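thread: overnight batch results

M.L. [08:02]
morning all. the overnight job finished for the chain we discussed friday. pasting input first so we're all looking at the same thing
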Amino acid sequence: MKLIAALHSPTPGPGLLAPAFRAALAATGATRLQVNLDDADVAPAMRFGPGTPVTAVVSVWTDEDPTAALDVVRRLEGVAGDVDAWLVEEREPLVPPAVADGERAEALANIALLRRPAAMSHEEWRADWLERHTQVAIDTQGTFGYVQNPVLEALTTGGADVAGIVEELFPMAALHDQHAFYGSGGDEAELQRRFTTLMDSCARFGAAEGLDLVPTSRYRFALGS
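M.L. [08:03]
and the structure it wrote out:
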């Protein structure tokens, strides 16, 4: 199973990338870790949302009790227990390229926390996001990685309104270049077409508003033996 935790501390600290943190997670039975940091490398990127600002996102894969891994995250120095967490179902319509353990992926990894509009049933919302919108998002942006995480269960009171979490990987040039972000190749008309198509698609399932967008640097680690 996959656990995702959103950290809100102003300075979550270097401990997220430290060997001691990985060892503590491995001791709970966790097998894999991903750390996404809103850091200096992505400082120029856009970030917004109605929720408490997110400074880091931690993803942990485990076959054991996920609350044990969550406790490790909460105890990390600098986190101060200010964490929202979810159990999710992972889908990878566009599999991100492999990167060596501990190396920063050469990407702007945007993470969005999605909320379901009250007017849509859970089944309608999930189908519209996963079955209809997916290809639109891939076709209208310059992404080379697209990971969807429908929420199965909120593990904290905070974030209980979050229904899905998506991670999209863009080239670093997308920090400053809209054509790199949308994959429009310098064509202004194509840029506008892609932007309009994407926003119209997002509006259909409520992702044009009411979401938190977090730009990050992405790191992955295998845990244990």
